[in-house]
Design brief:
single chain, 224 residues, alpha+beta, ten-stranded antiparallel beta sheet, two-stranded antiparallel sheet, 5 helices
Length: 224
Amino acid sequence: MATDDLPSRLPVTDRTRHRRLREQGSLERADLNAILDAGFVCHLGVVTDGRPLVVPTVYGRDERQLYVHGSVASRSLAGGLPVCVTVTHVDGLVLARSVFEHGVNYRSAVIHGDAREVTDPDEKLEGLRRLTEHATPGQWSYARRPNRRELAATTVLALSLEEASVKIRTGAPDDGDGPDAALGLWAGVLPLTGVWGTPVPDPALPPGTPVPDHIARRAGTRHG
């Protein structure tokens, strides 16, 4: 199936069906892609030795799958196992007139599936390229590429994006037209934003080493 043939809406499965807060759910593939593109750290959930384990890790993607990586010694990066990956962005605190109505404006994606270990050398490099470029566009071409020893010490997993649950909450508190509106209390949203700071050079750099343009131009831009 070509990329252009991907359905614009995500399929609904028993694991991705929106059972609560359905009005916040989205089946749009574009919303899933936007949430993934806005971040670069996910939480990977697996069951190891009969117990749940959730680890944070960076990721990259193409149109069909998510790539994560780590040490070959990591027990959480075994191919063929069912996994759950989450990516969440907090956009603000929703402060209502009553504590019960407090909430969070957020964007989240939960992806289910069986992780596949990437063993093809070309796809493994492509997965690592996407990981690197997702976090810092331009860095793959700037920095040294992984050598054979480093590749052998690295596990790359691929996870299909076909089974994903997306939820988005925006807007004001929900109690503006209820009895608590007469309390005379302030209510609203306290926004939360992230901004990339000024690059800090490694103290070991020779004096005068310039900051690459692809890094410098991110300073002051919004993250997330």
